[in-house]
Amino acid sequence: MKKPFVMCLIFLMLFSLCACSNQSAVDITEQPPSSLDPAAGAPASQLPQQLTTNITLDAELPQNTGKVDILTVGLAPIDMEAAKQLLLAGKEITNHVQSGATEVYSTSDGSNMSATGSFFSFDTNFSIYINNVFKWSENDSSYNADAFLTNKDLGFCPIDEAKMQVADVLHSMGIDSIDRSTVYTLDHAMLAEAETAKKNDPDYAIDIQNGQIKFKDSWTENDDCYFFVMECCLHNIPIIADDFERTESGTIMLGNRVLAILSKDGIQFLQMINLYRELSVEGQCEIISSEQALETVVKKLDSIITSNQYTIGNVELRYVPEYADKQHTSLRVIPAWCFSIEENAVSDTGDSSLVHEYILMIDASNGSEIL
C-alpha cells in the first residue's frame, strides 16, 4: 500500500538545506574554462598510469593555480508565487495546504507542487512515466542514462532553446547559481526500449504485479523530452553534489541538485534540493596543485594493508560545505580537490569484483584530508 503523500513530504524534509547565488541570470549552457578551471595538464594518451602496485591514475590532473575565495553561504527561499504563476498557469487548483514552511498544491490534471525548507518539487502525469523508466543517477541500481544521448536536438525545439527555457524559469524563481548541466535527449523510441527492459526485469515483477509502477505502453513523438541534471556553482566552482559525512563532527553535509524535464508543452518536472547562495567573501586561500593533493591520496591508500586495487577515475576542484561555527548556525564553502575512487577487491584466485566507489576530498588550502 502506498504511504500517504504527507509522510513522503515529511521524509523529504529530512534532506533539506539549500540556497543559490546572486548572479544576474542563470546560465546552464556549457561553460568556458576560467582561470581556476583550465584544461587538465596530463594528456589522456599517458593514461592510465600505475602509481603503486595497487593504485592506478586514470584521470587527467587539472592545472588549477591561484587564489580561491572562501565564501559564507546561506539558504535561498523558493519564490512560490513565481512558481505558481510559471508552473500552474491555466491549471485548476483543487487543493492548497500551507503549514509553516510547507506548502502544497494539487491540480485537476494530476500535477503536484510542493515546497518545504530547501526542497521544492513539481511533477505531472507526463513526468511519472519518464521517471519510471529513465534513471540518471549512477547510485541507482536501475541506472540507464548511459544508453541515452546527451546534447542532441529533438524535433520540438533545439537543445540551446531548451536550455534557455529552463534557465528563464529558474531565474524567475530566484535561482541564479546553476552553471553546470548535463542534458539527456530522451526520444520516444529509446524510452519505449527502456520501458520494455524494466517490464522484463524480474527485480520489478512484484511491484509491477501490485500496480506500484505505471507504464505508458505506447510512446510517440509527443513524449520526446529533455532531462536536465544540474549542479550549483559559485564563482565558477561547482559545489560537491552528493551527501557526505564529516566523521570528525558526526554531521551530514547534504549535496545539491536541480532536475528538470522539458517537453513540447513546457516544464513537466522540476526538483530542487540544497542550493547555496553567496552571502559574503570570508577570505581567500592559495590552493595547492592537484599533484600535491594526489600525494595525500596516494599516501592514504598506500597505508592501508590490502590487496585491493584502487583506480582514481576523476579529479576536480569543488567547493565543499561546512559549518562555520560550533552551533551549526552558519555555513561556508571551502575549496577541495575531489578524487573519485573505485575500489576493487581481489580474491585469492586473482579475480576482482567491485566493492564500492567513493570520493576522497583534500582541502585545497593545506593538503589535508577532509574528514
What is the H/E string?
HEEEHEEEEHEHEHHEEEEEEEHEEE
Fraction of residues in helix: 10-25%
Structural class computed from helices and strand pairing: alpha+beta
Poorly predicted tracts of residues: 1-25, 30-41
Give the overall pLDDT as a whole number: 86
How many helices? The count is: 7
**Radius of gyration over alpha carbons?**
22 Å
- Number of strand segments: 19
Largest sheet data: 10 strands, antiparallel
Q: Would you spell out the secondary-structure blueprint of this structure?
A:
Blueprint: H1 5-13, E1 49-50, E2 55-57, E3 67-75, H2 80-87, E4 93-99, E5 102-107, E6 112-116, E7 119-123, H3 125-133, E8 149-150, H4 159-172, E9 178-186, H5 188-199, H6 205-209, E10 225-234, E11 237-238, E12 244-246, E13 251-253, E14 257-263, E15 266-273, E16 276-286, H7 290-302, E17 309-323, E18 331-346, E19 352-363
Parallel strand pairs: 2-17
Antiparallel strand pairs: 1-2, 3-16, 3-18, 4-5, 5-6, 6-7, 7-15, 8-9, 9-10, 10-11, 10-14, 12-13, 14-15, 17-18, 18-19
Can you walk through the features of this model?
- This protein is α+β, with helices and mostly antiparallel strands and 371 residues long.
- Helices cover 19% and strands 36% of the residues.
- The protein has seven helices and 19 strands.
- The strands form three sheets. Strands 4, 5, 6, 7, 8, 9, 10, 11, 14 and 15 form a ten-stranded antiparallel sheet that branches.
- Strand 17 (309-323) and strand 18 (331-346) form a beta hairpin.
- It is globular.
- The two termini are 40 Å apart.
